[in-house]
Specification:
It comes from Blastococcus brunescens. This protein has about 180 residues and is an alpha/beta fold. About 40% of the residues lie in helices and about 20% in strands.
């Protein structure tokens, strides 16, 4: 995912990074891309990626915004997609879909609480029912696709960046 984004990042893009645990390599693999700005979490909270991308697109309507968004934290502020569609903002969101609140799992492990039983583990799993980000985005007026390979992601990202308005790509990542 990081290599695809680095290869296709347009000049003057604003990258909003809330990839969290899925963001390994993003900084390194986008460092050679055309000049761009990078916005990310300041630490301690999750869920600000979608509204941060909204703010960036409103502040700089002449620049493409690419949001790289973890699936669990997207659910905190998923309603931002409706505003993307309503305002026809040039935001391409890539959802890092690993089916879990992986960042919270890591934090539990760091404090030694990861083995507190089956119920605790279920609270960090986004399955049962699984989230359908394509349906969620489409239901709020944002065109959406699903990528399960790097090639699909590259093709879908090229198309999204070439068309005006909001787009969402559900990048299904291996667990």
């Amino acid at each position: 995912m990081a290599a695809v984004i680095g290869a296709l990042l347009p000049e003057r893009a604003i990258v909003v990074d809330e990839a969290l645990t899925s963001g390994v390599g993003l900084m390194e693999l986008t460092s050679g891309a055309p000049l761009h700005d990078w916005l990310s979490l300041t630490g301690g909270a999750i869920g600000d990626g979608l509204p941060m991308a909204l703010g960036a697109a409103v502040a700089c309507p002449d620049r493409p915004v690419i949001g790289i968004q973890a699936d669990g934290s997207a659910m905190y502020t998923i309603s931002a997609l409706w505003s993307y569609a309503r305002e026809q903002l040039d935001i391409t969101t890539i959802v890092c879909d690993n089916g879990s609140y992986a960042i919270l799992q890591h934090e539990l492990e760091r404090v030694g609480a990861a083995s507190d039983g089956q119920r605790a583990g279920q609270l960090l799993d986004l399955g049962g029912p699984g989230l359908d980000f394509v349906a969620l985005a489409t239901g709020m007026g944002v065109p959406a696709t699903r990528a399960t390979t790097a090639e699909e992601l590259a093709d879908q990202l090229r198309r999204a960046l070439a068309a005006p308005g909001p787009h969402l790509i559900d990048a299904v990542l291996r667990r």
